[in-house]
């Protein structure tokens, strides 16, 4: 499902925050890539060589994921997050792949509300995310993460 074709309802009223979260169109994404790429690299570096930022950009242009930007009151990009809709045989989910940037304490509630809105509009029944142990602690401490599993590397060939 092309994430850019999801018919999104208007955003919910923002939690008191000077940050805004939005899914830019692909033209804007290309124009601002110089700013997005180094932030996204902080997250892709954690993939043991599975992803580089340009791979995520290709997925965005193919419609497989959206790259959300988090902007401060000066419209500077302070963080980015990626997500895409994944269809399993019995359910559809919104899968969050990367979140990177600064100021998380100030915008996480707005981010969660935005991902809920996107998931509902796409007909997803759950939201999944990948992340390091620090993310698990962060989300569980705020009552967001409900069930945590781990991914295991069996071996490198």
Give an overview in words.
This protein has 157 residues and is an alpha+beta fold. It has 5 helices and 5 strands; from the N terminus they run βαααβββαβα. Strand 3 (77-87) and strand 4 form a beta hairpin. The longest helix is centred in the last third of the chain and has 19 residues, at 104-122. The chain is globular, with a radius of gyration of 15 Å. The model has no long low-confidence stretch (mean pLDDT 87).
Structural topology:
Blueprint: E1 20-22, H1 26-31, H2 33-44, H3 53-61, E2 66-71, E3 77-87, E4 92-101, H4 104-122, E5 126-129, H5 133-141
Parallel strand pairs: 4-5
Antiparallel strand pairs: 1-2, 2-3, 3-4
- The helix/strand series, from N terminus to C terminus, equals EHHHEEEHEH
Number of strands: 5
Helix count? 5
The helicity comes to 25-40%
Task: Identify the overall geometry.
Answer: globular
- Strand arrangement, major sheet: 1-2-3-4-5
Largest sheet: 5 strands, mixed
End-to-end Cα distance = 32 Å
Query: Which whole number gives the mean pLDDT?
Result: 87
Strand content: 15-25%
Instruction: Please tell me how large the radius of gyration is.
Output: 15 Å
Structural class: alpha+beta
Low-pLDDT stretches are none
């Amino acid at each position: 499902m092309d994430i850019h074709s999801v018919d999104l309802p208007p955003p919910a009223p923002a939690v008191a925050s000077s940050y805004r979260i939005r899914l830019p169109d692909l033209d804007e994404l290309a124009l601002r890539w110089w700013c997005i790429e180094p932030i996204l690299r902080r997250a892709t570096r954690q993939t043991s060589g599975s992803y580089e930022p340009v791979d995520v950009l290709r997925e965005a242009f193919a419609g497989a994921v959206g790259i959300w930007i988090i902007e401060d009151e000066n419209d500077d990009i302070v963080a980015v997050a990626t997500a895409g809709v994944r269809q399993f045989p019995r359910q559809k989910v919104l899968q969050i792949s990367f979140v990177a940037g600064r100021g998380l304490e100030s915008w996480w509630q707005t981010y969660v509300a935005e991902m809920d809105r996107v998931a509902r509009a796409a007909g997803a029944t759950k939201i999944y995310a990948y992340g390091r142990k620090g993310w698990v602690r962060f989300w569980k401490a705020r009552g967001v993460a409900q069930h945590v599993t781990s991914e295991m590397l069996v071996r490198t060939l």
